[in-house]
Design a protein that fits this description.
Length: 205
């Protein structure tokens, strides 16, 4: 972010999710360690379990925004709606981190985390290169609602700040051919999309 020099950073996380994760995060880590102790040595390196561990950790975007804020005294704000977090986060302790779930994940096909991450970058670039149609799947109306809410909030913040950097998932920055959303709703502001692996190659602004 130091290349972009924002005077405000926003993150795709709700105030509810942030508070809930800060309150319960240590307990989740203890639960994860206890469940892993019941599995064979090295189970923590299984791809599915590495992905689960990332899911229950404080999101990278939050840590990056907080670090930038502390170093440069630049404010950051959680910006998302909380209805999905209210539905899913309370189930982490009872379902996601249960020994039975970790055992089931350990039984799935394994792979390299680096290959999985590289695949996500490829998917993002492919989606951003065109204007795909949004697949009609369960949950899509809620996703559109979230994206349009984020677009309205970002538009208001951009009008009051010199430069805003928003940290979030690439899926919400697709220029859908047939659907509104975060990126289409902000297109008139001419924002710039960057993937994390491009950030270190940026010149200073």
């Amino acid at each position: 972010m130091h290349h972009l020099g924002p005077d405000l950073v926003t993150v795709e996380i709700s105030p509810f999710s942030l508070g809930y994760r800060l309150k319960h995060g240590r307990g989740w880590q203890r639960q994860l360690a206890a469940a892993l102790a019941e599995l064979p040595a090295g189970a923590e390196r299984h791809l599915a379990i590495q992905r689960l561990a990332a899911q229950v950790a404080l999101p990278f975007e939050v840590r990056a925004a907080g670090d930038y804020s502390r170093r440069l005294n630049v404010p950051w704000r959680p910006l998302d709606l909380g209805f999905l977090s209210r539905r899913h986060l309370p189930r982490y302790a009872t379902e996601l981190l249960s020994p039975a779930n970790l055992e089931a994940l350990f039984a799935t096909a394994d792979g390299a985390l680096a290959d999985f991450v590289a695949g996500q970058f490829r998917r993002a670039r492919q989606a951003w290169a065109g204007a795909p149609r949004r697949r009609i799947l369960p949950g899509v109306p809620e996703t559109v609602r979230r994206e349009r809410f984020l677009a309205r909030r970002l538009r208001r913040l951009v009008s009051r700040h010199r430069r805003v950097v928003h940290l979030g998932g690439w899926e919400h920055l697709v220029a859908w051919e047939d659907s509104p959303g975060l990126w289409p709703d902000l297109a008139d502001l001419k924002p710039r999309r960057l993937l994390l692996d491009e950030a270190d190659r940026l010149p200073d602004f």
